[in-house]
Protein backbone atom coordinates (compact mmCIF):
# COMPACT_ATOMS: atom_id res chain seq x y z
CA UNK A 1 0.00 0.00 0.00
CA UNK A 2 1.13 3.55 -0.71
CA UNK A 3 2.23 5.49 2.38
CA UNK A 4 -0.16 8.47 2.26
CA UNK A 5 2.33 10.70 4.08
CA UNK A 6 5.02 10.77 1.38
CA UNK A 7 5.76 12.11 -2.10
CA UNK A 8 9.21 11.88 -3.70
CA UNK A 9 10.60 14.86 -5.64
CA UNK A 10 13.56 14.48 -8.03
CA UNK A 11 15.26 17.03 -10.28
CA UNK A 12 17.37 16.01 -13.25
CA UNK A 13 19.28 17.40 -16.22
CA UNK A 14 20.81 15.23 -18.95
CA UNK A 15 21.38 12.23 -16.69
CA UNK A 16 19.01 9.70 -18.22
CA UNK A 17 20.84 6.49 -17.11
CA UNK A 18 21.26 7.70 -13.53
CA UNK A 19 17.68 8.92 -13.29
CA UNK A 20 16.25 5.65 -14.62
CA UNK A 21 18.34 3.72 -12.07
CA UNK A 22 17.02 5.95 -9.29
CA UNK A 23 13.42 5.59 -10.45
CA UNK A 24 13.83 1.81 -10.58
CA UNK A 25 14.96 1.87 -6.95
CA UNK A 26 12.14 4.18 -5.90
CA UNK A 27 9.59 1.91 -7.60
CA UNK A 28 10.78 -0.95 -5.35
CA UNK A 29 10.26 0.96 -2.09
CA UNK A 30 7.67 -0.66 0.19
CA UNK A 31 6.20 2.81 0.83
CA UNK A 32 5.17 2.98 -2.87
CA UNK A 33 5.31 6.81 -2.81
CA UNK A 34 4.15 8.87 -5.78
CA UNK A 35 7.14 10.37 -7.59
CA UNK A 36 7.40 13.79 -9.26
CA UNK A 37 10.36 14.45 -11.57
CA UNK A 38 11.27 17.91 -12.82
CA UNK A 39 13.25 17.50 -16.03
CA UNK A 40 15.35 20.66 -16.14
CA UNK A 41 15.55 21.01 -19.90
CA UNK A 42 17.28 17.70 -20.70
CA UNK A 43 18.26 17.09 -24.32
CA UNK A 44 19.26 13.41 -23.99
CA UNK A 45 15.80 11.85 -24.23
CA UNK A 46 15.25 11.79 -20.48
CA UNK A 47 11.55 12.72 -20.59
CA UNK A 48 10.71 10.15 -23.26
CA UNK A 49 12.60 7.40 -21.41
CA UNK A 50 10.81 8.17 -18.14
CA UNK A 51 7.42 8.15 -19.84
CA UNK A 52 8.13 4.73 -21.36
CA UNK A 53 9.69 3.02 -18.34
CA UNK A 54 7.87 4.72 -15.47
CA UNK A 55 4.50 5.90 -16.76
CA UNK A 56 3.18 6.43 -13.22
CA UNK A 57 5.79 9.11 -12.52
CA UNK A 58 4.54 12.69 -12.77
CA UNK A 59 6.92 14.43 -15.18
CA UNK A 60 7.28 18.21 -15.21
CA UNK A 61 9.03 19.84 -18.17
CA UNK A 62 9.67 23.56 -17.58
CA UNK A 63 11.70 23.72 -20.81
CA UNK A 64 14.89 25.07 -19.24
CA UNK A 65 17.31 24.30 -16.45
CA UNK A 66 15.84 25.76 -13.27
CA UNK A 67 18.40 24.19 -10.94
CA UNK A 68 17.05 23.77 -7.41
CA UNK A 69 13.94 25.76 -8.31
CA UNK A 70 12.83 22.63 -10.13
CA UNK A 71 12.14 21.25 -6.66
CA UNK A 72 9.92 24.22 -5.85
CA UNK A 73 7.98 23.56 -9.04
CA UNK A 74 7.46 19.93 -8.06
CA UNK A 75 6.48 20.70 -4.46
CA UNK A 76 3.58 22.77 -5.81
CA UNK A 77 2.12 19.44 -6.97
CA UNK A 78 2.66 17.65 -3.65
CA UNK A 79 -0.50 16.76 -1.70
CA UNK A 80 1.11 14.79 1.13
CA UNK A 81 2.35 16.20 4.47
CA UNK A 82 5.97 15.24 3.79
CA UNK A 83 8.20 15.51 0.73
CA UNK A 84 11.11 13.13 0.17
CA UNK A 85 13.89 14.87 -1.73
CA UNK A 86 16.05 12.67 -3.93
CA UNK A 87 18.68 13.53 -6.50
CA UNK A 88 18.89 11.68 -9.80
CA UNK A 89 22.01 9.90 -8.54
CA UNK A 90 20.73 9.03 -5.04
CA UNK A 91 18.15 6.55 -3.76
CA UNK A 92 16.59 5.67 -0.41
CA UNK A 93 16.82 2.39 1.47
CA UNK A 94 13.51 0.53 1.77
CA UNK A 95 11.71 1.75 4.87
CA UNK A 96 13.86 4.87 5.34
CA UNK A 97 11.31 7.37 3.94
CA UNK A 98 8.66 5.92 6.25
CA UNK A 99 11.13 6.08 9.14
CA UNK A 100 11.64 9.79 8.50
CA UNK A 101 7.87 10.30 8.31
CA UNK A 102 7.51 8.55 11.68
CA UNK A 103 9.95 11.04 13.25
CA UNK A 104 8.08 13.99 11.74
CA UNK A 105 4.79 12.53 13.01
CA UNK A 106 6.13 12.24 16.53
CA UNK A 107 7.86 15.63 16.72
CA UNK A 108 5.72 18.54 15.47
CA UNK A 109 8.54 21.10 15.82
CA UNK A 110 10.74 19.11 13.44
CA UNK A 111 10.82 20.34 9.83
CA UNK A 112 13.53 18.14 8.32
CA UNK A 113 15.13 14.73 8.76
CA UNK A 114 18.44 13.98 7.02
CA UNK A 115 19.59 10.39 6.50
CA UNK A 116 23.02 8.76 6.62
CA UNK A 117 24.65 8.79 3.18
CA UNK A 118 26.46 5.75 1.79
CA UNK A 119 28.67 6.25 -1.28
CA UNK A 120 28.34 3.63 -4.00
CA UNK A 121 29.57 1.40 -5.50
CA UNK A 122 31.98 0.96 -2.59
CA UNK A 123 29.42 1.19 0.21
CA UNK A 124 31.53 3.64 2.23
CA UNK A 125 30.13 6.43 4.35
CA UNK A 126 30.15 9.92 2.89
CA UNK A 127 32.65 12.15 4.78
CA UNK A 128 29.90 14.63 5.62
CA UNK A 129 28.10 12.02 7.75
CA UNK A 130 30.59 12.39 10.57
CA UNK A 131 29.93 16.13 10.55
CA UNK A 132 26.19 15.49 10.85
CA UNK A 133 26.65 12.87 13.53
CA UNK A 134 28.89 15.08 15.69
CA UNK A 135 27.04 18.38 15.23
CA UNK A 136 28.06 20.79 18.01
CA UNK A 137 24.59 22.29 18.32
CA UNK A 138 22.67 21.96 21.57
CA UNK A 139 19.44 20.12 20.88
CA UNK A 140 16.10 20.20 22.70
CA UNK A 141 15.48 17.24 25.00
CA UNK A 142 12.74 15.90 22.74
CA UNK A 143 14.86 15.79 19.58
CA UNK A 144 15.55 12.21 18.42
CA UNK A 145 19.01 12.93 16.97
CA UNK A 146 21.68 15.62 16.52
CA UNK A 147 20.44 19.12 15.72
CA UNK A 148 21.60 20.38 12.32
CA UNK A 149 22.20 23.84 10.93
CA UNK A 150 21.47 22.75 7.37
CA UNK A 151 20.47 19.67 5.37
CA UNK A 152 21.29 17.80 2.18
CA UNK A 153 18.53 18.01 -0.39
CA UNK A 154 19.35 14.63 -1.94
CA UNK A 155 19.03 12.85 1.41
CA UNK A 156 16.30 14.59 3.42
CA UNK A 157 12.57 14.47 4.11
CA UNK A 158 10.88 17.81 4.81
CA UNK A 159 7.53 18.89 6.15
CA UNK A 160 5.74 20.16 3.04
CA UNK A 161 3.96 23.08 4.71
CA UNK A 162 7.19 24.27 6.38
CA UNK A 163 9.03 24.15 3.06
CA UNK A 164 6.33 26.21 1.36
CA UNK A 165 6.02 28.73 4.18
CA UNK A 166 9.78 29.35 4.11
CA UNK A 167 9.62 30.04 0.38
CA UNK A 168 11.46 26.94 -0.82
CA UNK A 169 14.85 27.30 -2.48
CA UNK A 170 15.90 30.84 -3.36
CA UNK A 171 15.56 31.44 -7.12
CA UNK A 172 18.96 33.14 -7.47
CA UNK A 173 21.11 30.42 -5.86
CA UNK A 174 20.45 27.77 -8.56
CA UNK A 175 22.58 24.84 -7.30
CA UNK A 176 25.49 24.48 -4.91
CA UNK A 177 24.92 24.83 -1.17
CA UNK A 178 21.42 26.15 -1.83
CA UNK A 179 20.08 24.35 1.26
CA UNK A 180 21.80 26.59 3.83
CA UNK A 181 19.63 29.65 3.24
CA UNK A 182 16.41 27.64 3.36
CA UNK A 183 17.57 25.86 6.52
CA UNK A 184 18.34 29.18 8.21
CA UNK A 185 14.91 30.54 7.31
CA UNK A 186 13.26 27.40 8.69
CA UNK A 187 15.21 27.83 11.93
CA UNK A 188 14.26 31.52 12.10
CA UNK A 189 10.62 30.43 11.95
CA UNK A 190 11.09 28.12 14.94
CA UNK A 191 11.66 24.82 13.14
CA UNK A 192 14.36 22.26 13.94
CA UNK A 193 16.38 19.96 11.68
CA UNK A 194 17.86 16.61 12.70
CA UNK A 195 20.08 13.77 11.54
CA UNK A 196 18.78 10.19 11.78
CA UNK A 197 21.46 7.50 11.96
CA UNK A 198 19.05 4.63 11.29
CA UNK A 199 17.92 5.99 7.91
CA UNK A 200 20.04 5.50 4.79
CA UNK A 201 20.41 7.11 1.37
CA UNK A 202 22.79 5.77 -1.28
CA UNK A 203 24.75 8.12 -3.54
CA UNK A 204 26.49 7.01 -6.71
CA UNK A 205 27.83 10.28 -8.05
CA UNK A 206 27.10 10.95 -11.69
CA UNK A 207 30.09 11.34 -13.98
CA UNK A 208 28.06 13.94 -15.89
CA UNK A 209 28.87 16.96 -13.78
CA UNK A 210 30.98 20.09 -13.88
CA UNK A 211 32.88 20.20 -10.57
CA UNK A 212 34.41 23.55 -11.46
CA UNK A 213 31.00 25.17 -11.90
CA UNK A 214 29.71 23.52 -8.74
CA UNK A 215 32.66 24.89 -6.73
CA UNK A 216 32.10 28.39 -8.12
CA UNK A 217 28.42 28.26 -7.19
CA UNK A 218 29.24 26.85 -3.77
CA UNK A 219 31.56 29.75 -2.94
CA UNK A 220 29.17 32.34 -4.40
CA UNK A 221 26.16 30.93 -2.56
CA UNK A 222 28.07 30.74 0.71
CA UNK A 223 28.86 34.44 0.35
CA UNK A 224 25.28 35.32 -0.56
CA UNK A 225 23.89 33.41 2.42
CA UNK A 226 26.43 35.10 4.69
CA UNK A 227 25.54 38.57 3.46
CA UNK A 228 21.78 37.91 3.41
CA UNK A 229 21.41 36.54 6.94
CA UNK A 230 24.47 37.02 9.17
CA UNK A 231 25.10 40.13 11.32
CA UNK A 232 27.74 42.53 10.01
CA UNK A 233 30.75 41.38 12.05
CA UNK A 234 30.25 37.62 11.58
CA UNK A 235 29.53 38.24 7.90
CA UNK A 236 32.76 40.19 7.52
CA UNK A 237 34.76 37.50 9.35
CA UNK A 238 33.25 34.76 7.19
CA UNK A 239 33.96 36.70 4.00
CA UNK A 240 37.59 37.32 4.96
CA UNK A 241 38.02 33.67 5.95
CA UNK A 242 36.76 32.52 2.57
CA UNK A 243 38.97 35.04 0.77
CA UNK A 244 42.01 33.63 2.61
CA UNK A 245 41.23 29.94 2.21
CA UNK A 246 39.57 29.28 -1.15
CA UNK A 247 41.90 28.16 -3.95
CA UNK A 248 43.55 31.16 -5.61
CA UNK A 249 42.35 30.56 -9.13
CA UNK A 250 39.97 31.95 -11.73
CA UNK A 251 37.09 29.83 -10.40
CA UNK A 252 37.27 31.49 -6.99
CA UNK A 253 37.78 34.92 -8.54
CA UNK A 254 34.68 34.44 -10.69
CA UNK A 255 32.67 33.31 -7.66
CA UNK A 256 33.62 36.40 -5.65
CA UNK A 257 32.94 38.66 -8.63
CA UNK A 258 29.47 37.17 -9.16
CA UNK A 259 28.70 37.49 -5.47
CA UNK A 260 29.84 41.13 -5.33
CA UNK A 261 27.90 42.06 -8.46
CA UNK A 262 24.70 40.95 -6.70
CA UNK A 263 25.13 43.28 -3.71
CA UNK A 264 22.21 45.56 -4.71
CA UNK A 265 19.58 42.79 -4.50
CA UNK A 266 21.36 41.12 -1.57
CA UNK A 267 21.11 44.31 0.48
CA UNK A 268 17.47 44.76 -0.52
CA UNK A 269 16.65 41.24 0.67
CA UNK A 270 18.93 41.20 3.71
CA UNK A 271 17.19 39.95 6.85
CA UNK A 272 19.41 39.16 9.83
CA UNK A 273 18.75 35.93 11.70
CA UNK A 274 17.37 35.96 15.25
CA UNK A 275 20.07 35.94 17.94
CA UNK A 276 19.46 32.33 18.96
CA UNK A 277 19.72 31.09 15.38
CA UNK A 278 22.84 33.18 14.69
CA UNK A 279 24.43 31.55 17.74
CA UNK A 280 23.91 28.14 16.14
CA UNK A 281 25.72 29.23 12.98
CA UNK A 282 28.58 30.64 15.02
CA UNK A 283 29.00 27.25 16.72
CA UNK A 284 28.95 25.47 13.37
CA UNK A 285 31.63 27.60 11.72
CA UNK A 286 34.64 26.03 13.43
CA UNK A 287 33.44 22.51 12.66
CA UNK A 288 32.75 23.43 9.03
CA UNK A 289 36.22 24.90 8.58
CA UNK A 290 37.72 21.53 9.48
CA UNK A 291 35.26 19.47 7.45
CA UNK A 292 36.78 17.39 4.59
CA UNK A 293 33.31 17.36 3.02
CA UNK A 294 33.40 21.11 2.38
CA UNK A 295 36.56 21.39 0.32
CA UNK A 296 34.74 23.19 -2.49
CA UNK A 297 35.24 26.32 -0.39
CA UNK A 298 38.86 25.51 0.35
UniProtKB/TrEMBL annotation:
Entry-linked InterPro entries: Glyco_trans_2-like, Nucleotide-diphossugar_trans
Keywords in alphabetical order: Glycosyltransferase, Transferase
Pathway entry: Cell wall biogenesis; cell wall polysaccharide biosynthesis
One Pfam family hit: Glycos_transf_2
Record flagged with keyword Ligase: no
Superkingdom of this protein's organism: Bacteria
Domain (Glycosyltransferase 2-like): residue spans on this chain: 7-131
Protein family per UniProt: Belongs to the glycosyltransferase 2 family.
PANTHER family named in the record: GALACTOFURANOSYLTRANSFERASE GLFT2, RHAMNOSYLTRANSFERASE WBBL
Protein name as catalogued: Glycosyltransferase
Organism encoding this protein: Streptomyces galbus
Amino acid sequence: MTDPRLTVVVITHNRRPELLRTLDRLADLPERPPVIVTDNGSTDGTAEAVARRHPRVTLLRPGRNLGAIGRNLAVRQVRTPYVVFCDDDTWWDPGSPAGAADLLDRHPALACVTARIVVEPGGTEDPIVEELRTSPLTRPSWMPGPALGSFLAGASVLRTDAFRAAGGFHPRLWLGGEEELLAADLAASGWWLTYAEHLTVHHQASTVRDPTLRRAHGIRNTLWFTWLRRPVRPALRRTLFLARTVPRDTVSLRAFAEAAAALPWVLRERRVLPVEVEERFRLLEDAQRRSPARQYTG
